[in-house]
Amino acid sequence: MNRYLDNASALESSRVGGLDDMARDAIYEKDRALFIQHKAEMQSQHDRLVAQLESRGGSPNSLKQFMNTAGFCSSLAVTTAPY
User: Fold this and answer.
1) Within-domain flag for 76
2) Could you tell me which residues come within 8 angstroms of residue 73 by beta carbon, excluding any fewer than 6 positions away?
3) Which of 16, 34, 49, 50 has its Cα between 20 and 30 A from that of 6?
4) Is residue 83 assigned to a domain?
5) 45-60: per-residue pLDDT in tens?
6) Cα–Cα distance between 83 and 5 in angstroms, integer?
């Protein structure tokens, strides 16, 4: 279960930064506001996933978070050996 929570938190984390770019590049203020709102929702979801993972004795995999955020591979492709 921890692996799935870690994968989900890495996915959420990797997408949050992209929403900043989308908000910055939005032409219409309404679109910008929606991107900002969605970013807040995704950040909240990420935080809840990490809290759930930690409550189960796990912790987010820093390498997976970095690799996904940097775009080196698809979001769920970076998996590590079982903990």
Assistant:
1) no
2) 67
3) 34
4) no
5) 999 999 999 999 988 8
6) 13
